[in-house]
Amino acid sequence: MVPMLKLYSGPLSLFSRKVEIALNEKGIPYDREFVAFTQERGYQPRHPAVLAANPKRQVPVLVDGDLSLFDSTIILEYLDELYPSPPLYPATPQERARCRLLELDADEILFAPVRQLLFRTEPPHPDPARHEANVLAGKEAEKLLEARLAELDGRLGRQDFFCGSLSVADIGLFMTLLFTQRLGGPPLAPHLSLAAWYRRLLERAAFARAAAEIAAADRELSPALASR
Ligand SMILES: N[C@@H](CCC(=O)N[C@@H](CS)C(=O)NCC(=O)O)C(=O)O
Questions:
Q1: Which is the closest atom of ligand 1 to the Cα of 14?
Q2: Which of 45, 59, 60, 164 is surrounded by the fewest CB atoms within 10 Å?
């Protein structure tokens, strides 16, 4: 019997949810285990399986028999090679390269200002000066995000997806924009193409499940968000 894929995920882990969306879009069976997470202590204590598999000590980690993988981008590439249908990368090298750049944008460039909003999920910093600095950094991040939303809206234009058909670029951008929304960043609604794309993705079971589970996890784990 082929052993089932095992995914170490986190209830509020953006990057783990990317992997879950890809697995669910492809209909790949997997066994999911959530590592411990609280707003107060983050991922401490680290899960032993994550420590063993990932020198960066982060989720997601995917275990396939004797192969352990970390980093959502590497995992998505592996899953697409293992289960090529439906493909999550375009057909030509040039299109694939553009698509990978958009995924990198979502994970690293667009995510950088989103990271500045993450303090909003945590208990306020006990040092009022540090709290105020976080608030100011959050406001600056929102300005940057507003400009990025306009840019992405223009880039998407009349296309249904960022790279022709559903791809890792849509998955990465969806997750980063979902975080923008849950953290009180600028709304998508004024950006008509982007907002319609986001709504279309939410109609897909894999995306809707990730969004619903994150909302449920926030209700349990992030009371600071509810009181904003
Ligand atoms: N580039 C990595 C980022 C992974 C990452 O940042 N994981 C977060 C959860 S979403 C984590 O485990 N953070 C704990 C830490 O960095 O100590 C990926 O794409 O998987």
A1: 10
A2: 45
Q: Which residues line ligand 1 (CB under 6 A)?
A: 10, 13-15, 43, 57-60, 71-73, 107
CATH label, 93-226, candidates 1.10.287.950, 3.40.50.300, 1.20.1050.10, 3.90.78.10:
1.20.1050.10
Q: What is the pTM of this model?
A: 0.97
**What residue spans in the chain does CATH classification 1.20.1050.10 cover?**
93-226
Q: Separation of 137 CA from ligand 1 center, angstroms?
A: 21
Task: Give distance in angstroms: CA of 5 to centre of ligand 1.
Answer: 20
The boundaries of every CATH 3.40.30.10 domain in the chain are 5-82
Residue range 76-94, pLDDT digits in tens: 999 999 999 999 999 999 9
